[in-house]
Design goal:
It is built from 12 helices and 16 strands. The protein has helices at 40-46, 118-122, 125-139, 155-166, 180-184, 199-202, 215-221, 240-246, 250-259, 261-270, 283-294, 311-319, and strands at residues 2-7, 15-19, 28-37, 60-61, 66-73, 85-88, 101-105, 109-111, 146-149, 170-175, 190-193, 206-211, 225-233, 273-276, 302-307, 326-330. The strands form 3 sheets. Strands 3, 5, 6, 7, 8, 15 and 16 form a 7-stranded mixed β-sheet that branches. The chain is globular, with a radius of gyration of 20 Å. The protein starts with a strand and ends with a strand.
């Protein structure tokens, strides 16, 4: 049997139950999960905030990234074998990493970095892929570019600062004064204490903003960009550009176009682009990130590791926004 975290829409109280073992197809591997991490998308799925983009049948096993050991492979799998230590981010139709086992497509995993633990490896896949796709695919970040990374001490921010520095960029970030030394250790060049100053008052002529906050912080981000700059947001509202790329139907596209008309106006006013990012799983990109970790150019940052039976406490803490780095669930 397989112990898994079962959830209903809007249900804050989490529940671990025994469920059937997952079955693999020809292109899948079956992984015994050792660790998984908590991400903001877990709260959004739980609360039904992504229903327009993602349709899930409830109850649902939550969880979006993991590390573990391969215990079975499908007949078409050639890149992995039983006993391989892997990490990954399942495609959105097959989430469920808060469990003892998961069946996952071979294209969605990579070999785990050799120089980190399972807990450290589990901190990487979702934030790593999201940030890599933002910086490499959308921004095409290059040396001498200037980027603002919001919330530098959080799970996304700690990885993003490191990757931006690897790519040669000048990095500004927002955090509180108590975390200034923490983010400076990762290479942040300009640190804004959001409790005493506003980033839009002290930054100007930036090439990019990596938005993890949404709301007013997103609207104010337009003010600091030079013409031709880009905002990539994980917390804003999907816009019409995203709807077309994601293949949403005409009605959903129209709704999103209306919902983001103020952002579209800001794009035109400041002559910049706004992108909402919904990352794609990619074992190939995880392999690139693995090389950076093994070369010690990037290190996973963990706030705390919590045992599977205490996952409710871990969720409550992660949702509070106080974590410095990732909150990890130790499953095996």
């Amino acid at each position: 049997m397989n112990a898994a975290l079962i959830n209903h829409y809007g249900q804050k109280q989490l529940e671990i139950k025994k469920v059937a073992m997952p079955k693999i197809s020809a292109d899948d591997v079956l992984v015994e999960i050792h660790a998984a991490s908590i991400n903001p998308i877990d709260f959004k799925v739980r609360d039904g905030k992504l229903k327009m983009l993602l349709k899930y049948n409830m109850p649902l096993i939550l969880g979006n990234d993991f590390s573990g050991v391969v215990i079975q492979v499908g007949r078409n799998v050639t890149a992995f074998k039983v006993g391989d230590e892997v990490y990954g981010r399942p495609r959105k139709s097959r989430i469920g990493t808060f469990a003892e086992y998961i069946a996952i497509h071979q294209d969605d995993i990579a070999m785990k970095p050799k120089n980190v633990s399972f807990e450290e490896a589990a901190a990487i896949p979702l934030v790593g892929l999201t940030t890599y796709q933002a910086f490499h695919d959308i921004m095409q970040l290059k040396p001498t570019d200037k980027i603002l990374i919001q919330a530098g001490s959080g799970g996304v921010g700690t990885f993003a600062i490191q990757l931006a520095k690897v790519m040669g960029a000048y990095v500004a970030t927002t955090t509180s004064a108590k975390n200034e030394a923490f983010v400076k250790d990762f290479g942040a060049d300009r640190i804004i204490d959001y409790t005493t100053e506003k980033f839009e008052d002290v930054l100007t002529d930036y090439d990019y903003v990596y938005d993890t906050l949404g709301g007013e912080a997103l609207k104010n981000a337009f003010k600091i960009l030079k013409p031709g700059g880009k905002i990539v947001s994980l917390s804003g509202i999907p816009n019409y550009r995203f709807a077309k790329e994601y293949g949403l139907n005409i009605w959903k596209s129209f709704i999103l176009k209306l919902a983001t008309r103020k952002l579209t106006a800001l794009e035109k006013q400041h002559k910049v682009q706004y992108h909402f990012l919904f990352m794609k799983p990619s074992g190939a990109q995880l392999a690139i990130i693995r090389e950076l970790i093994e070369a010690q150019k990037i290190k996973p940052i963990i706030d705390r590791v919590v045992s599977f039976p205490d996952i409710q406490k871990a969720f409550d803490y992660a949702e509070s926004g106080r974590a410095k780095g990732k909150v990890i669930i130790k499953i095996k």
